[in-house]
Structure formats: structure tokens, C-alpha cells
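Whiteboard transcription, Tuesday session. T.W. wrote the C-alpha cells on the left side:
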């Protein structure tokens, strides 16, 4: 969901570009055969029909991203743009696959690109970035719309369009890989030496779907802040709104920030260093009741944090439960911006009401309730549990993307690398950690899984926040070194940014290990920290 989600939650105009980590691995020589951007033939992937194929040589330059995400990339070299439209007989769908191939300097690699929120593929920015870095890259729109476009969800009869949902959930990414590789063969006259998939959020989920269902598509998959367990977590992330509505308590943005800041301050030194970063959010046990009675000035008015405010925040951090107390899903990580999912605003009469984040709100209204006019504010605690279970029952198989059996991907020789921010305000980090632990239980333990799948958690980092927005990490470089040279990443080099805007060099630790200050040395230097097993393990 990338920068869009952060911007929407903050109510800030969208002007910033979206960035993709670039690979620093050495490039290969260009193809010896003539570059062909004139006649490109594509054989239809199984179960599809090819409706059209066009090839156009583009001059490059500055590429502007389309849709709500926007963004731009400058200095893009000339490239061949091949557009392929495919459909599934009887489904009345039309999915467009775009493949961009640099005219000169191709590094011999192929890269598939994921989407964001309800957009199945890239808006042009990541395609341009990939071409600029020497990759031939492909993406698909799956026949659906932009990031917040849900017009495709229901058909004319008010029923879920299962064909388009299947496109969005899984098959279109696979078909894009099949088409894109054919286009590479046709344009360069040879196969790509290595194939990679990259994506964050929805794109991260798509990467896991590729590993689970189409294990031969890619040699390496970089799937960050992944929206796996979609059918569960989409409903689960509405929990903050359900809590506020049922408790009839809506903490102001200042109060929400006060709770977050207090928790970060209280848990900052768990790693032995005071640097404004919570190293292991799952170990932070700050009790929000400690702030009861605290006075704040919000928008020029003095407010006092109440017991009701603290109770709401405590439930949000704890995560959704049934009325009998059974845990359904992890809560918002301590240290994450609570305003992302617990936002509220006055209506036209000045009455404060919840303002749900549009992505999970749309999932509940369109796909679960099949009613775009559904009023989320009416959901009780018991109804929430019913909706959570309904979403899982109806959609877990098609879009859950949480099958822990990755044996086929391992046997194919594939490598899966993921980083996830520990202050992710939209996708609870613990859900990804729990999935990794399920894979370990299914596949014979951590050592066996580490051979092909590694997870890195980034302290103080928000949703997709290492993509050049609030920190950085070159996950693609680490992945290519792993795939092409067998150098499994023990750590992932990153630049982290705390709430005060201070930057710190850190080596992210392979899960479940966490970083701990050695007691001496510059806090800005990664060498001052080492990876250790957390106390809970």
C-alpha cells in the first residue's frame, strides 16, 4: 500500500515519489543478438487468450507514475514497451501486462513487480526504476483498477466478481511472469539469466502467493511488509474503529501520539541503547493507564487523558478478541502510529465519529457484506467476530496467501527474503512473524527454513518504510547475492529513522534474533550492535 496509505492516513497531499530498492549486484553483458522491438509474439498462458500485443520504442527521460500514487523517475534510458492484453474465456475480463525492456545495458535479469492496496501492479514508477537499473521488468493490472478503486468488486447482480478476485488474488501475477519471460526472449533473443519478483504490502502478498502456488516462476522473491492472511488481517485492522465505536470514546490525534511517544520512551532501552527506536515491539509492555490524568494541548485546547482513552488504546494494542477473550489477530504494534487505523473526525454536526482506513473498510463492505453502503460504525464486538470468521471462510482459500508449506519453492531452488517494519501502522508485524514460525513448524525447524527463506524486522519502521521514505534497505541486492552467489544474508544493512528524524545505521537481524547494543561505541554505527536471541525465545 506504500506511501499512499501513509499519506491518506495523515491527510497530506500526495506529492512524493514512490521508491523501489535497487540492486547493486554486478550487471551482465547485453544480449549479443539484435534488439527487436518491432515484432513480438506471445503465446497465451494456460487458460487464457491473447487479445492483443503491441511493441513501441520509448525514448525514456522522465516517467511520471499514474493514479493516486503518482511519483516520477528521471533519467530513464530508452526502452521497448510491450503491452499484452489477455482474457480468460467466459470471464469477460481483460488483463493488461506491460513489459519494459532497456534498449541498451540490459543486465540479463527479469523482474516482476507487485501492486499496492487494490492495485494489482505498478503505476510506472517501479517499471522505470527497474529499467534504469538495467532490468527487463513486467507488471499486470489484473483487469482491476487503481489503489482505492473497488468498482470491480461486485457484478451487476450485486455478487462478488469471482473471476476478477481470482485475477487480483493469484493468477494474473503468474500469467504476467509467463508473458514477461516470453517478451524478454522475443526482444533480446535469449532467456533472462535470473528472474526476481519485488513488491511491498499487496506486492508482498503477491510475492508470497508466487512462492506458495507458482514456485517455478522466480529464482528470488523480495516480498516486504506482506499483506498475507489477507482474509483475516483486513477485518482485523478494523478493530480500532470497532473498539472506539463500542466504547464511544475517540482519542484525539494528540492523545494517540502521546500514548505512542510514551511507549517508545518506556521501551527504548530494551536493546541497551537510548536511540528513539523500539528494538522489539512485541516485548514492550507499556501500560497506557500510566498516562491517565495527563494534560495535553491539542489544537489550542487543553485535554486530559481519561481512563476510557487508555482502555481504548490498550484494546487496540492488544488486538481483536472474541467476546470470550479468544485472540483473533495481533494488534497495532506498540510504537506504530495509532492514527493510521484509529483515526476519527467530526461530522457535519460536529459529532466525533470514527474515520476507518479505506482499504479494510472497502474489504468489509464490498466483499464480506456485499453492500457498499454498509455502516461500519454499527458493528458490535460479537458481530465483529462473526465478520472475521466469515471473511476467512469465504476468502481464505482464494486470497489468504498463508499456506506454510513452501516445500515446492524450496525444491525449485528459490529464495524468499522479507523485511517488515516493527512500527507498521497498517499491517501488524506479528502476523508475518507468526507465519514464519508456522513455516518452521511445517518444514522441520528454523535451520531448514533459513536455507531458503529469511525474515528481517526493522525497528521503528512504518509501513513499507524502508523504500526510501523513512529509511532504506537494499533488499534486492541482498537477494541477488543470495540467489546468484549463494551468500545467504545473516543481516540486512539498513538506515533507520527515529521519531525525531535522526538516522541510524543498523544491521537488521534474521528473525527471531534482535539487535542489542554492546555497551560501547557510536549509536549511529551498526558495528556497535550485535544480533542475539530475544528473551522470549
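and on the right, the sequence the group agreed on:
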Amino acid at each position: 500500500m506504500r506511501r499512499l496509505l501513509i499519506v491518506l492516513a495523515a491527510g497530506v497531499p500526495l506529492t512524493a515519489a514512490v521508491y523501489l530498492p535497487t540492486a547493486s549486484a554486478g550487471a551482465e553483458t547485453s544480449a549479443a543478438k539484435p534488439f527487436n522491438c518491432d515484432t513480438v509474439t506471445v503465446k497465451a498462458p494456460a487458460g487464457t487468450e491473447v487479445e492483443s500485443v503491441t511493441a513501441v520504442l520509448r525514448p525514456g527521460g522522465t516517467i511520471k507514475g499514474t493514479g493516486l500514487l503518482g511519483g516520477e523517475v528521471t533519467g530513464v534510458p530508452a526502452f521497448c514497451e510491450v503491452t499484452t492484453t489477455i482474457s480468460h474465456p467466459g470471464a469477460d475480463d481483460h488483463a493488461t501486462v506491460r513489459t519494459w525492456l532497456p534498449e541498451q545495458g540490459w543486465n540479463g535479469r527479469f523482474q516482476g513487480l507487485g501492486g499496492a492496496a487494490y492495485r494489482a501492479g505498478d503505476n510506472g514508477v517501479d517499471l522505470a526504476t527497474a529499467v534504469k537499473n538495467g532490468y527487463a521488468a513486467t507488471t499486470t493490472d489484473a483487469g482491476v483498477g487503481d489503489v482505492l478503486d473497488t468498482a470491480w468488486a461486485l457484478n451487476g447482480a450485486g455478487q462478488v466478481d469471482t473471476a476478477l478476485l481470482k485475477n487480483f488474488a493469484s493468477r494474473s501475477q503468474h500469467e504476467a511472469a509467463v508473458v514477461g519471460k516470453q517478451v524478454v526472449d522475443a526482444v533480446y533473443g535469449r532467456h533472462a539469466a535470473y528472474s526476481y519478483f519485488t513488491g511491498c504490502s499487496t506486492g508482498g502478498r503477491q510475492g508470497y502467493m508466487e512462492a506458495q502456488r507458482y514456485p517455478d516462476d522466480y529464482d528470488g522473491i523480495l516480498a516486504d511488509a506482506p499483506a498475507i492472511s489477507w482474509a483475516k488481517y483486513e477485518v482485523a485492522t478494523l478493530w480500532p474503529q470497532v473498539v472506539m465505536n463500542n466504547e464511544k470514546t475517540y482519542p484525539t490525534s494528540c492523545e494517540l501520539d502521546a500514548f505512542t511517544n510514551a511507549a517508545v520512551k518506556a521501551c527504548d532501552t530494551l536493546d541497551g541503547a537510548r536511540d528513539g527506536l523500539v528494538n522489539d515491539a512485541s516485548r514492550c509492555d507499556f501500560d497506557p493507564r500510566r498516562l491517565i490524568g495527563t494534560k495535553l494541548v491539542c489544537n489550542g485546547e487543553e485535554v486530559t487523558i481519561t481512563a476510557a482513552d487508555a482502555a481504548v488504546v490498550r484494546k487496540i494494542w492488544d488486538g481483536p478478541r472474541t467476546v470470550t477473550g479468544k485472540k483473533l489477530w495481533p494488534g497495532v504494534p506498540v510504537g506504530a502510529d495509532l492514527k493510521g487505523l484509529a483515526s476519527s473526525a467530526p461530522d457535519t454536526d460536529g459529532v466525533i465519529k470514527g474515520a476507518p482506513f479505506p482499504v479494510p473498510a472497502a474489504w468489509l463492505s464490498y466483499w464480506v457484506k456485499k453492500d457498499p453502503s454498509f455502516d461500519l460504525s454499527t458493528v458490535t464486538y460479537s458481530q465483529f467476530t462473526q465478520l472475521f470468521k466469515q471473511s476467512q471462510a469465504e476468502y481464505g482459500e482464494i486470497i489468504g496467501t498463508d499456506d506454510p508449506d513452501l516445500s515446492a519453492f524450496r525444491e525449485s531452488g528459490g529464495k524468499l527474503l522479507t523485511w517488515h517494519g516493527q512500527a507498521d501502522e497498517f499491517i501488524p508485524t506479528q502476523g508475518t512473524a507468526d507465519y514464519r514460525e508456522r513455516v518452521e513448524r511445517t518444514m522441520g525447524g528454523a535451520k531448514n527454513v533459513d536455507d531458503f527463506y529469511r525474515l528481517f524486522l526493522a525497528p521503528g519502521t512504518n509501513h513499507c518504510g524502508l523504500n526510501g521514505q523513512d529509511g532504506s534497505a537494499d533488499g534486492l541486492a541482498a537477494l541477488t547475492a543470495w540467489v546468484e552467489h549463494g551468500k545467504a544474508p545473516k543481516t540486512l544493512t539498513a538506515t533507520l529513522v527515529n521519531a525525531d528524524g535522526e538516522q541510524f545505521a543498523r544491521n537488521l537481524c534474521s528473525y527471531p534474533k534482535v539487535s542489542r547494543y554492546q555497551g560501547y561505541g557510536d549509536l549511529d554505527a551498526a558495528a556497535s550492535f550485535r544480533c542475539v536471541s530475544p528473551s522470549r525465545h
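Someone added at the bottom: Residues 232-396 form one domain.
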